[in-house]
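Moderator note: this is an archived Q&A kept for reference. The question asked for a predicted structure of one protein chain; the sequence and the answer are reproduced below.
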Amino acid sequence: MKNKNILVTGVAGMIGSHLIDTLLQKNYKVVGIDNLSFGKLENIKHNIGNPNFTFYRVDVTDADALKMLAKDADVIIHLAAFKKIGEKDAAMPTFDINGKGTENVLEAAKMWGCKVVYASTSDVYGMSPELPLNEDGDLLIGPSMIRRWAYAVSKLYGEQMAFAYHHDYGVPVVVIRYFGGYSPRSSFAWSGGHVPIFIRSILNNEAVTIHGDGSQTRSMGFVTDLVNGTVLAMENEGAVGEIINIGNDEELSVLDCAKLIHKVANTGHELKINFVPMAEVFGKYKDIMRRIPDLSKAKKILGYEPKVKFEESIRITIKEIFSK
């Protein structure tokens, strides 16, 4: 894979911006695209001017631009996505971007013979009770009338489409299911997950908003582990045709997460928590109470192993925020 050309969609987002740092360090040539609706130029500005990196402000729904930019690409890493959060949010952008955008990526890959690494999400497991969540396990999605499932369904549709292009047209694809991740470049909106929101609230001596009673658990990984798994999936031909969980299997409740961040931040202020009933945010949607990945497949195929423990990653994130 040395000196090959990589096209990254959603390059200015949290994962994308850290990914290109690693790809450029490994001497890959990278073309990155982002419409900057969520991603920020600030995340990639230190790589602007690098002769091995070119950035274009392009939306993945622009099929013609994608086909043109993918012409010289050996691999497309498709990170760009739109996440609907609450019941009051419009659902169509989620389907349009995650559906049509993914189809455009796969069409470009089919045209030019590119490998595709498709970034899916642990949300597709839905309310599955089979823990830890395994790639071969059944998925349990809630009622269609609850629009909160739009994101999970759109990403699952993307997975199915990726494998259709693989089986029907011979496009080499790898599907990676990210479990939660964060870094100092995370979005401080709910689409970026609860960890950066909690960090900001605690550092600003504001109340931490927790949906429900906080007993729901998550397995949150630091971005360097997510990036490492992504690069391994890209470089490993044995991953083609597979779905692989990428993340951290360190499980922690949302409430305990807030307490740990408060301890590490050591602001001298008391921890303030604002518990918000689920129904106020998500309507009839039932939150997924436990989410922990089975990483045995990633370990076997990719040699993947998460390296950064949760407490350490919180220290790294807070330190970098203070250094700015």
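Archived answer notes: The mean pLDDT is 93.
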